[in-house]
Amino acid sequence: MNAQVFQTPIDYLKGVGTARADVLKKELGIFVYEDLLKHYPFKYIDRTRFYKIRDINPDLPHVQVIARVTHKEVLGEKHTKRLIVHAMDDTGIMELAWFQGIKWADKSIAVGKAYIIFGKPGMFNGKTQMSHPEMEPYSTEAKKRMGNLTLQPGYNSTEKLKSFSLDSKGLQKLMANLLDQCLRDIRETLPLYIIQRFKLINRADAYRYIHFPENAQQLYEAQHRLKFEELFHIQLKLLKNKLIRTQKFKGNVFDKVGEYFNTFYEHKIPFPLTGAQKRVLKEIRIDTQRGVQMNRLLQGDVGSGKTVVALMTMLLAIDNGFQACIMAPTEILANQHFLSIQSLVGDGFVEVALLTGSTKKKERKVLHEKLLSGELKILIGTHALIEDAVQFQNLGLVVIDEQHRFGVEQRARLWKKNTIPPHVLVMTATPIPRTLAMTLYGDLDVSVIDELPAGRKPIETLHYYESQRLPMFGLIKREIALGRQVYIVYPLIQESEKLDLKNLMDGFDTISHEFPKPQYQVSIVHGKLKASEKDEEMQRFVKGETHIMVATTVIEVGVNVPNASVMVIENAERFGLSQLHQLRGRVGRGAEKSYCVLMSGNKLSREGKIRLETMVRTNNGFEISEIDLQLRGPGNIEGTQQSGVLDLKLADLAQDQELLMQARKVVEEIFAKDPQLALPENQILQSAFQTKNGGLSWDKIS
């Protein structure tokens, strides 16, 4: 694509002008020609058929009619104003109605004139009616053009755009102007050998056919080509970044396994490592011996033993004369890491400290001194770790928990805490589908812990409808009688916090009534409580002083209570699959059998049904994440919005997995053969990095 032409402000396109340009920018984010070119149709409508009025029925999706306007009038006052038009052909009369843009429609429609009318038919008072149809004055040329345009593009528009005559039809006209003016300026971005190997059409044709296909085959070829290109360039950027990092940044060498690692492994580890944990440790060992900076993503379900792997990697760093740190997104999580690591290493083995926003000034001073002297080996904290005052003597390893909660700059600042950047181990308990991991974290090496430690029993998941509350209460009473504890979680949807708080308080009243004092003690935690009150309630539950914790989703990542054996999720249909899975992972942490009860309304949408059935059927986080991707699309999976990587206009990671694999494979082959993209046939790819389209504009630390 001739970058300069396509960076032309949209104001200069024929048919736009200042007022329309402003509304295009505000409503659709279209600032330059390229933005408009990539505003792809969201549907295609067959316009080859013309109906007679008597053959129209409201079940048809869209119809096209040639009819003459016989009457029009504006009815109603202010808020009930509408334009009613009667149109007639040789078989009958139909009514057309406008409730918005009345002035414009009234002005542009003339009584006595014939029109090509297109829209969704409906019935009103027993008559055929069409609301807000597209109207084009009839002529033999117009009819011929419509008849030839097998698939007419439908573009997303808004009410504001429509008031500037930029409905789907108006946008179609602008697109036609753009292609007339600039089609010859669309440059190729893929090498010829790739185009031939994958039988792709050229780029200019792809843009022409995606907007104005003459048949289904042309549309398929255009979509295939542009999707491949999108995925290919993302992989090209990610793998180029990875290559640059391995060439540019040397890594600290952890060449010995010493006293700390061995003592912990032989005497302190509370349970044998699983095969998956051993495999991941081996991958990390190989990484940290190569003299190249490690950047590894560690995926594993809640309870799969990621913390032990992280701790053993930190002990490896200490054995080689380095310090290590863990950065967690919240104080609760940082605290939890601190407590679990302290309990794993015991007293006097290795010095571990905690640094969060709550750490007192006096404690900080001591902590900073010990870090600089090298006496403090492991520091656990929130983003307080990235403050300039926090200086290490020799930082060799950074562990980042739930990385999607941190911005690129925050991570980059940790890199700069040593002259040779520390190794990075990123942990996530949100299972990420393979295709998403390849796109979001494509420049990281991925390790997966896919088995649970011995002795962990799978959680039994039950789905009860609103009408089945009694068995749920029965289960809770049985478990409390056995000395266990229970979570009851309510959804919190921000738009209706008042309503949600009411749900929570109503729920709390019901539970308090069903589980009266003094026999039962109930805690409550929600976002409106002060941090100190929240902590106090959490601590009461952790210590076993309360039997039931009624909460909003604040407990999704956080407290570890091995004694909790029941998780009840109210309005479970209002949660996404990943969130349900995360919540379920709060129980099943002890050796006892645990339950997750999904409570839902009696009426469920198709998606809601699939989500709850999936939860009952499987405990496998990766299988769940794949179904979640299919149901919700990649843009809604936690963390993807902030990444900027997933700015996919056309490709869909749920639907186009095979295409992504192909693109990834071919990019790997290219870099294996030509890491600098110096060969003549790859010059086209090299130049892609200089433009906005390709671009190493990302921070290297992504």
From TrEMBL:
Record bears the keyword rRNA-binding: no
Record SMART domains: DEXDc, HELICc
Boundaries of every Helicase ATP-binding domain copy: 287-449
Presence of keyword ATP-binding: yes
Domain Helicase C-terminal: from-to ranges: 474-635
Gene3D superfamilies found in the cross-reference section: Nucleic acid-binding proteins (2.40.50.140), P-loop containing nucleotide triphosphate hydrolases (3.40.50.300)
Enzyme class at the top of the EC tree: isomerase
Alphabetically ordered keywords of this record: ATP-binding, DNA damage, DNA recombination, DNA repair, DNA-binding, Helicase, Hydrolase, Isomerase, Nucleotide-binding
EC number, UniProt record: 5.6.2.4
A Pfam family it matches: DEAD
Catalysed reaction equations from the record: ATP + H2O = ADP + phosphate + H(+); Couples ATP hydrolysis with the unwinding of duplex DNA by translocating in the 3'-5' direction
Any one GO MF annotation of this record: DNA helicase activity
NCBIfam families named in the record: PRK10917.1-3 (NF008165), PRK10917.2-2 (NF008168), recG (TIGR00643)
Function: Plays a critical role in recombination and DNA repair. Helps process Holliday junction intermediates to mature products by catalyzing branch migration. Has replication fork regression activity, unwinds stalled or blocked replication forks to make a HJ that can be resolved. Has a DNA unwinding activity characteristic of a DNA helicase with 3'-5' polarity.
PANTHER family: ATP-DEPENDENT DNA HELICASE HOMOLOG RECG, CHLOROPLASTIC
Family the entry assigns: Belongs to the helicase family. RecG subfamily.
Protein's name in the database: ATP-dependent DNA helicase RecG
Organism: Mucilaginibacter terrae
